[in-house]
């Protein structure tokens, strides 16, 4: 499309009861730096550029249920995080404040839950 406007994905945004608290977790997990910080909105910048992560305070946040169940708040998106050592990455995530989900659908993937209940996957790339 020659007349299409220039579009650039800048971030994925996660809602939480406390944006600063959830951003602090992902900062510990990923080691990314804060580029914007207010009580309602925090942005973590990806090293070397690219899309970052944003966090928005949502007082009525309802954590998704993993695995999905009828009638429950469903996950609509999740983060995939490539790792070089799955066991070490899981322990690092736990130390940062994550929990490991009871249900694990694949051997080379570990589904974890951040402190606001968002699932994220640690995985070994092919």
TrEMBL record:
Keywords: Lyase. InterPro entries: Glyas_Bleomycin-R_OHBP_Dase, Glyoxalase_6, VOC_core. One of its GO terms (molecular function) is lyase activity. Residues 8-126 form the VOC domain. Pfam families: Glyoxalase_6. PROSITE patterns: VOC (PS51819). The keyword rRNA processing does not apply. This is Putative enzyme related to lactoylglutathione lyase. It comes from Kineococcus xinjiangensis.
């Amino acid at each position: 499309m020659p007349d299409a406007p220039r579009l650039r994905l800048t971030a994925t945004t996660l809602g939480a009861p406390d944006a600063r608290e959830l951003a602090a977790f992902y900062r510990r997990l990923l080691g990314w730096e804060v580029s914007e910080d207010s009580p309602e909105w925090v942005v973590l910048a990806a090293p070397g550029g690219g899309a970052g992560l944003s966090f928005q305070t949502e007082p009525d946040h309802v954590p998704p249920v993993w695995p999905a169940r009828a009638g429950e708040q469903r996950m609509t998106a999740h983060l995939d995080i490539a790792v070089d050592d799955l066991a070490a990455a899981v322990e690092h995530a736990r130390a940062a404040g994550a929990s490991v989900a009871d249900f694990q659908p694949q051997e080379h993937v570990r589904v974890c839950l951040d402190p606001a209940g968002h699932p994220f996957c640690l995985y070994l790339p092919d």
